[in-house]
């Protein structure tokens, strides 16, 4: 049988058809995807980083600001540095940067290699910060002394790559085959660089059909083809930077027994003689806080009613003395005071003088008029004061409002690290400026005070401040509201004098009474031994540091029975 011979023309025709089919497929793909862009943008042109600067990328996110490069050292914009190193403080008034640890205060000047530690001069290889164009830049080397992080610096163009977040989880994979890193998510976008097989890239969840956004180890962000990456073997990475060194040395004084503090309002030196009557009923008190000190001016001077004799007599009955320092003087520019290192230092030195000369056991800071605009200066004052108190093994206690959104600038989390005790003033639920009448301290208010404070401060540092006073409210027919503070006896006597009936309000944990005075409605939420006992049931003495009362002399003697029962 003869083999059938296929004519050469048929073979050629089949080949032509096959070629045409391939061309049709290729043309179709080109029509669909377009001709790949072969334009390569140099990274120098892409980043457009000025001479002496570097693109700054922190935790794979580009900063809006560049870093500076000086003597092969990277300097970060101050606002970036402050987010990384929270205890750094730039003093605009004195043009210095201050950094505090638990026991040391470092002061640096712009573009100077010499700096001071607790007043003693030292020298470093490069300045810790520099000024340029009216802006402050902080050395990466300085930040790394205190804050563990990963830093890589690249040239041509300059790039500073920082990883410092302990809480973020990063996804990455290897490049399977050589591919281009493009400016955008298609082959029509320009090429930034070539990715080689074996390179590792971080994955950023921003994809198109064929491309995924990635971040390279040398700090370039762009888009790579998904099929060129080993997507099936994605790994995760979470850095474990050592943060313990930032809080090293922040020791605290802790009493074995609960603190029971009574504030003793002293309005003159002569008033110190009333210490005996103030404490006459106060069974169970182990700390007294006389209101001795008030900031006198913006340079750091104090007005004082301090008395050595008072301290000696209180010590003789085994009670500690933590005098109060307030910010109630409305003539003082507290922003000027607290934002100046010179003024803060003078104020602290004045406080420490009395601590040492009068043999004080501690200090109670009661700054209630702080504004958000200088809250950073206030916290810096507390940092610096805590160093001096810790060095002398003296108690630093700080009074605070119940933490709410509007006063978050008081930064209780940082205060809780610095201080031995945080006293939350669980009163003034309704106060002289309130728009409605109400309790000074209801049970829900006390609960909220403890809960909100404990969200930022360890329970064993919390002192719960409670009231020995109440308020009488007058509601007029035309809607006006007047109020006056009264002691426990004063409130009860007023109810009796007006033959009003007091009823126990279980929800508030207080007796309530009201009556008519002419056309006015009189209302009062009483404080006495039963209301004190109800509040103390909310305070777990085995968890919190203790309790405090404003103020000595306003209470009934029986209120201390409630305290003694709580202490059992």
Automatic annotation (TrEMBL):
Which GO terms fall under biological process for this protein?
carbohydrate metabolic process
Q: Transmembrane stretches, by residue range? A: 6-28
Q: Where is the GH18 domain?
A: 258-568
Cross-referenced InterPro entries: Chitinase_II/V-like_cat, Chitinase_insertion_sf, Cu_amine_oxidase-like_N, GH, Glyco_hydro18_cat
Q: Which Gene3D superfamilies match?
A: 3.10.50.10, Glycosidases
Q: Which UniProt keywords apply?
A: Hydrolase, Membrane, Transmembrane, Transmembrane helix
Which Gene Ontology molecular function entries are recorded, alphabetically? chitin binding; hydrolase activity
Could you identify this protein by its name?
Answer: Glycosyl hydrolase, family 18
């Amino acid at each position: 049988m003869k083999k059938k011979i296929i004519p050469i023309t048929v073979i050629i025709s089949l080949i032509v058809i096959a070629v045409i089919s391939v061309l049709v497929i290729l043309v179709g793909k080109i029509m669909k995807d377009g001709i790949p862009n072969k334009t390569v943008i140099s990274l120098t042109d892409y980043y457009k980083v000025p001479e002496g600067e570097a693109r700054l990328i922190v935790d794979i996110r580009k900063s809006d600001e560049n870093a500076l490069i000086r003597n092969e050292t990277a300097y970060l914009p101050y606002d970036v540095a402050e987010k990384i190193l929270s205890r750094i403080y730039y003093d605009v008034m004195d043009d210095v940067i201050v950094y505090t640890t638990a026991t040391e205060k470092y002061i640096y000047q712009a573009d100077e290699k010499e700096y001071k530690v607790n007043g003693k001069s030292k020298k470093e290889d490069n300045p810790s910060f520099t000024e340029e164009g009216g802006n402050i830049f902080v050395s990466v080397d300085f930040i790394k002394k205190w804050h563990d992080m990963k830093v890589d610096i690249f040239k041509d163009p300059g790039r500073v790559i920082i990883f410092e977040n302990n809480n973020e989880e990063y996804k990455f994979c290897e490049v399977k085959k050589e591919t281009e890193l493009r400016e955008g998510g298609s082959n029509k976008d320009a090429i930034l660089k070539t990715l080689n097989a074996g390179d590792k890239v971080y994955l950023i969840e921003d994809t198109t059909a064929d491309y995924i956004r990635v971040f390279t180890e040398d700090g370039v962000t762009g888009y790579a083809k998904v099929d060129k990456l080993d997507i099936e073997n994605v790994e995760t990475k979470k850095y474990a930077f050592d943060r313990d060194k930032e809080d090293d040395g922040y020791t605290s004084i802790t009493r074995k027994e609960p603190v029971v503090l009574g504030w003793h309002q002293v309005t003159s030196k002569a008033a110190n003689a009333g210490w005996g009557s103030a404490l006459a009923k106060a069974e169970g008190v182990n700390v007294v806080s006389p209101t001795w000190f008030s900031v006198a001016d913006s340079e750091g001077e104090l007005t004082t009613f301090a008395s050595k004799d008072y301290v000696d007599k209180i010590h003789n009955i085994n009670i500690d003395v933590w005098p109060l320092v307030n910010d109630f003087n409305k003539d003082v520019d507290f922003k000027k005071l607290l934002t100046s290192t010179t003024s803060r230092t003078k104020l602290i030195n004045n406080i420490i003088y009395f601590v040492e000369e009068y043999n004080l056991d501690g200090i109670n800071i009661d700054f209630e008029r702080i504004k958000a605009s200088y809250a950073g200066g206030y916290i810096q004052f507390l940092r610096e004061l805590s160093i001096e108190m810790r060095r002398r093994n003296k108690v630093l206690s700080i009074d605070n409002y119940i933490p709410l959104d509007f006063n978050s600038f008081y930064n209780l989390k940082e205060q809780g690290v610095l201080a031995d005790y945080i006293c939350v003033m669980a009163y003034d639920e309704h106060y002289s400026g309130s728009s409605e009448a109400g309790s000074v301290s209801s049970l829900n208010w006390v609960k909220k005070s403890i809960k909100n404070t404990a969200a930022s401060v360890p329970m064993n540092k919390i002192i719960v401040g409670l009231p020995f006073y109440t308020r009488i409210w007058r509601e007029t027919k035309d809607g006006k509201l007047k109020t006056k503070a009264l002691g426990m006896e004063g409130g009860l006597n007023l109810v009796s004098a007006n033959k009003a009936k007091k009823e126990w309000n279980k929800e508030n944990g207080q007796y309530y009474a009201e009556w008519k005075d002419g056309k006015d409605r009189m209302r009062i939420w009483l404080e006495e031994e039963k209301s004190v006992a109800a509040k103390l049931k909310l305070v777990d003495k085995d968890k919190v540091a203790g309790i405090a009362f404003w103020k000595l002399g306003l209470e009934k003697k029986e209120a201390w029975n409630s305290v003694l029962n709580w202490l059992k």
